[in-house]
Amino acid sequence: MPNTEPEVQLVGKVIHVAVGVVQRGDGRILIARRPDHLHMGGRWEFPGGKVEEGETVQQALTRELREEVAIEVKDLKPLTEIRHDYPEKTVLLDTWWVTKFKGEASGQEGQQSAWVAVAELFDYQFPDANQEIIEAILATGSHL
Ligand SMILES: Nc1nc2c([nH]c(=O)n2[C@H]2C[C@H](O)[C@@H](COP(=O)(O)OP(=O)(O)OP(=O)(O)O)O2)c(=O)[nH]1
Ligand SMILES: [Mg+2]
User: Fold this and answer.
1) Ligand 2 geometric centre to CA of 38 (Å)
2) Ligand (nearest to CA of 43)
3) In a domain? residue 31
4) Which residues cross the membrane (predicted)?
5) Is residue 122, in this structure, part of any structural domain at all?
6) Ligand 1 center from residue 8 Cα (angstroms)
7) How far apart are CA 133 and CA 19, in angstroms?
8) I need a surface site. Which of 13, 38, 90, 126 has the fewest CB within 10 A?
9) What pTM does this model have?
10) Residue 109 lies in a domain
């Protein structure tokens, strides 16, 4: 009997996540601290969340930023896509610049948030997959 185990692992599902790099006019970027009880709890992140069935990634990002940090996305532009294997799951971080938005950002789930300069991103602890997002931000510099 052939062993089908490796194939089972290959077809394991990838979690599609919409991630927003929200940048203000002064170049600062919005980050938020993940609630402790979640996957990667306590680490800082770019706000976002899972794309639900029947949603586009843009719709998902707009919904997540409204739910998590109370801002209204007005314009988006693609930044990068990062696939990362954590021991417990595989994520596809579909990452977008948020180039226009309305509202004052504030953590709607009690989480801390901060507007940080690009150079300050290195002072915060992010999930491992974010290293490549930060590199993409540095490579682009800014959407402004
Ligand atoms: N939002 C976000 N998720 C990230 C980042 N980096 C990273 O590895 N992730 C991972 C952590 C999670 O496994 C997954 C995103 O899931 P999530 O917990 O934000 O999803 P969600 O907002 O839909 O939350 P829930 O409804 O499942 O509670 O992607 C990041 O910068 N932002
Ligand atoms: Mg989320």
Assistant:
1) 9
2) 1
3) yes
4) none
5) no
6) 24
7) 10
8) 13
9) 0.91
10) yes
